[in-house]
Amino acid sequence: MQESDAEKTARLERRVAQLEAEDGRLQREVERLRSLLEEALRAAKRQAAPFSRRRPKAHPAKPGRKPGSRYGPRCRRPVPQRIDEVIEVALPTRCPHCGGEVRESGVVSQYQAEIPEPRVEHIEFRIHVGSCRACGRPVAGRHAHQTSTAVGSAASQLGPRALALAAVLNKRLGLPYGKTAAVLEQGWGLKVSRGGLCQALARMGRKAEPAYGALTEKIRAAPSVTPDETGWKVGGQLWWMWAFSSSEATVYAIQPGRGWEQAAAVLGADFAGFLVRDGWGVYRQFIAAVHQTCLAHLLRRCREMIAAGCGRATRFPHAVRKVLEAALGLRARRDQGHLSAHGLAVACGQLEARMDRLLARPRRAAQNRRLANHLGREREALFTFLYCPGLEATNWRAEQAIRPMVVTRKVWGGNRTPAGARTQSILLSVLQTCHQQHTPVVPLLMRLLCSPRPLLLTLNSTLAR
């Protein structure tokens, strides 16, 4: 029986509906697999030693420096300027090889830098106490090496050098309290509990509160700041470790959120300097700042899209990558003095036009639309570094500041209490700033610990009352 036109139309419509449903299901499956592939590519970059990203090479290159002209700059330990001990090494009377008589022909010198035999100094402060004849209040003496005025059951304290070293080991190098205590005991014979270290570093953090406030003010007044953030655990809950870094100082802040309120609490809502940051939308709310988005993040995203995509879908990230790489090349030519001011302006205009043409075209692939939308939001912050000599094109400064904390997070997870997180933020800020300024941190922390009054850490690497 021959079907009518209406039946044929209905059958074809049902078939079209089935194909459309199947097409939609396949599109969703493709997007799911694509997202899994992108996540796998990102996860491969997050691995830390000793995990390997790939199989070992069958014939790896020989480790060490290459001979000849590729050896690189040669370096050796310098001869020490001060000699603390001279040891005469006598010549043997008989040859160790044949037993023959030995005749001396001269003396040569060898130098060795050694750690002296460790020992713990136990100091007793005999504190003279009295009272004021005018007001009757108690008065006690205080020595310059005392870290506390506690007596009685709390009279036995740790010295400033031991506490400063513990702060460096725990906060800067990421050793847990147990391992920090083990280093002090095995290296110097100083026995201390984990709880004792925790309480001592908390007291140090409270003494450094004014210095932390001063550093925060310096960051707010800095001409250029690079922020970044990463996850952090406090009491098993997800908090965020914020890092705000300038060329001379770094401020950390462990806070319970990742939003505008937390960023503005450190940087100030009216920050008006250069802000070199990644694409996190919170940073765009600093409307008074001059923005530069991180090109390294965008280039990495383009490379991941090219690796995960296929066919014509990779043309857009390829084109974006070429424009961004051309911008970096233009910066290099400008810094080398190969471009006049007019030539630089023309080249910048051409780059801006190329990017605008790319963003003006509609995109079919969902991942390309997402990238185009992100670039559209960041459009005004893409090439700021070309117009401002000295401005960075990436947020490398904050990435480097936050990287040790990522390692620390892998080792011992985070902090147990908000008070511990506050101490972590304060001491880390002081230690990282000293590292940036090439300032010896142990003497500085010793002065901080022994001062009866708060001290302010200033950007010229000194402590002022």
Can you describe this structure?
- The chain has 465 residues and is of the alpha/beta class.
- The chain contains 14 helices and ten strands.
- Strands 3, 4, 5, 6, 7 and 8 form a six-stranded mixed beta sheet that branches. Strands 1-2 form a two-stranded antiparallel sheet.
- A hairpin with a 2-residue loop joins strand 3 (224-234) and strand 4.
- Mean pLDDT is 88; it is low at 461-465.
SSE layout and pairings?
Blueprint: H1 5-45, E1 129-131, E2 138-140, H2 160-172, H3 177-188, H4 194-207, H5 209-221, E3 224-234, E4 237-245, E5 250-255, H6 260-267, E6 274-277, E7 290-293, H7 295-308, H8 315-335, H9 341-360, H10 366-377, H11 384-387, H12 396-412, E8 414-415, H13 418-436, H14 441-450, E9 456-457, E10 463-464
Helix pairs in contact: 2-3, 2-13, 2-14, 3-4, 4-13, 5-13, 7-8, 8-9
Q: What integer is the average pLDDT?
A: 88
Stretches with pLDDT under 50, minimum 5 residues = 461-465
- Large-scale geometry: extended
Strand content: 5-15%
Distance between the termini: 104 Å
Query: What kind of sheet is the major sheet?
Result: 6 strands, mixed
CATH fold type of the domain at 206-291 and 396-464: Nucleotidyltransferase, domain 5
Number of helices: 14
The SSE order reads HEEHHHHEEEHEEHHHHHHEHHEE
Instruction: Please give the CATH architecture of the domain at 206-291 and 396-464.
Output: 2-Layer Sandwich
Name the assembly state. single chain
Count of strand segments:
10
